[in-house]
């Protein structure tokens, strides 16, 4: 009982610190107090009666238990924030010397980790369009372009004919907020676009009247839904199951680039991200790959 009271005493000191020195609102402090009480109840159930006995796997077990209780990711994330603040306080006071949350990602980040398509499945997907037909040639060019550049659907449908420079192997993209960027094109994407421009686009009705690169069979600029249908139908034929969207090709582009050694800042520029923190999401995906490789090949993993 004395040890349980010790936990409560430390939390009370922390709450007083928030109240007196941080000037947080009463509602925020009450919220932190409730969250920390839930955490200490969990620790006591595991016979952990000192904060210095908490390890990273303890935090992970706590998150899993809260998820099983039906709590939302937002609620769990808020609790983890409270625990982080508690440990920072205890470290600053000299009460503790280590922080078990130092290597723990936010559960909100876990939820945001993008799903990616493996390289061999990407190859399967890109081989699906029937290039003996003009729309198949067009769809091949769309898929190759999506994966080669990581462009958003809204950017692909907006591409003008004069934004593509096949000789110098680049394309202009107009992203969010009408911000423009230059994105390099790979050999496969260039070949697919060349075939489209030579064998398919000239045979589309009224194509000579449009400045847009990709057109529907009636000669109108493609809509977002058209690209979605192309990607979903080809993915289904390629045996790629689960949720599939053009954005998944963007995720795959970024993850594969980083996994193969591309610089984070370069990938950020190609994706058109304003903040590098947005691009860093893909490094977490890569870490899962590294852990899997380590488990598979390290003799003492």
Automatic annotation (TrEMBL):
Catalytic residues, chain numbering: 152, 176, 247, 250, 273, 282
Compartments in which it is found: Cytoplasm
Claim: Cell division is one of the keywords in the record: yes
Domain Core-binding (CB): start-end pairs: 5-91
Cellular component GO terms, alphabetical: cytoplasm
Entry's Gene Ontology molecular function annotations: DNA binding; tyrosine-based site-specific recombinase activity
UniProt keywords, alphabetically: Cell cycle, Cell division, Chromosome partition, Cytoplasm, DNA integration, DNA recombination, DNA-binding
The keyword Metal-binding belongs to this UniProt entry's keyword annotation: no
Biological-process GO terms, alphabetical: cell division; chromosome segregation; DNA transposition
Residue ranges annotated for the Tyr recombinase domain, each copy included: 112-295
Function: Site-specific tyrosine recombinase, which acts by catalyzing the cutting and rejoining of the recombining DNA molecules. The XerC-XerD complex is essential to convert dimers of the bacterial chromosome into monomers to permit their segregation at cell division. It also contributes to the segregational stability of plasmids.
Protein family according to the UniProt entry: Belongs to the 'phage' integrase family. XerD subfamily. Belongs to the 'phage' integrase family. XerC subfamily.
Entries under PANTHER family matching the protein: PHAGE INTEGRASE-RELATED, TYROSINE RECOMBINASE XERC
NCBIfam families attached to this UniProt entry: PRK00283.1, recomb_XerA_Arch, recomb_XerD
Oligomer and partners: Forms a cyclic heterotetrameric complex composed of two molecules of XerC and two molecules of XerD.
Full protein name: Tyrosine recombinase XerC
Recorded name of the encoding gene: xerC
